[in-house]
Amino acid sequence: xxxxxxxxxxxxxxxxxxxxxxxxxxxxxxxxxxxxxxxxxxxxxxxxxxxxxxxxxxxxxxxxxxxxxxxxxxxxxxxxxxxxxxxxxxxxxxxxxxxxxxxxxxxxxxxxxxxxxxxxxxxxxxxxxxxxxxxxxxxxxxxxxxxxxxxxxxxxxxxxxxxxxxxxxxxxxxxxxxxxxxxxxxxxxxxxxxxxxxxxxxxxxxxxxxxxxxx
Length: 215
Prior knowledge:
This protein is an alpha+beta fold and 215 residues long. The chain has a domain at 23-91 and 132-194: NADH Oxidase (3-Layer(aba) Sandwich), CATH 3.40.109. It has ten helices and four strands. The chain has a four-stranded antiparallel sheet with strand order 1-2-4-3, sandwiched between helices. Helix 5 (93-107) runs antiparallel to helix 6 (115-127). The longest helix has 25 residues, at 130-154. It is globular. The two termini are 32 Å apart.
């Protein structure tokens, strides 16, 4: 596939910002949203385990319930889309088995040829203390967030990553615990309001020489 030009890629990243005010009348075209959902599916993860689920909250009444647990930030209800990035809790060797089964299905590789890989994954999952396993897998969820935000920018869709919410309350409202998941981060997506003054502010970033070091 033809690559995006360097200038176009940087222009998209300069254009994006964490939108503070969305236009609730503007909707993301179905095809564009389908691509954004696919970007979540295609996100990379450690071992390829995909320890997550992405809950797209479309019901207005449910979003209103989440608003007080989101520090009152209006993006939760005004953006066209609200995605809750959730960690699959209790990751275990069975998740390695599941991934191997999926690999066999898609690639036609005999399961025996993947046994070493399965054992490596299962060993990591079983030997890592639960608290460290949670941290490790939660990092994978944030990788998916980065892919989503970048894809949105390339597609000309505004987005806002949000950690300003109460995860336990989100789990409660959405019934995530009963499903085996726990909210880790949220992203809203749609189109910026014309009067969101943050859109015109210059990005505040350190000089490349301060954050990139060549060794």
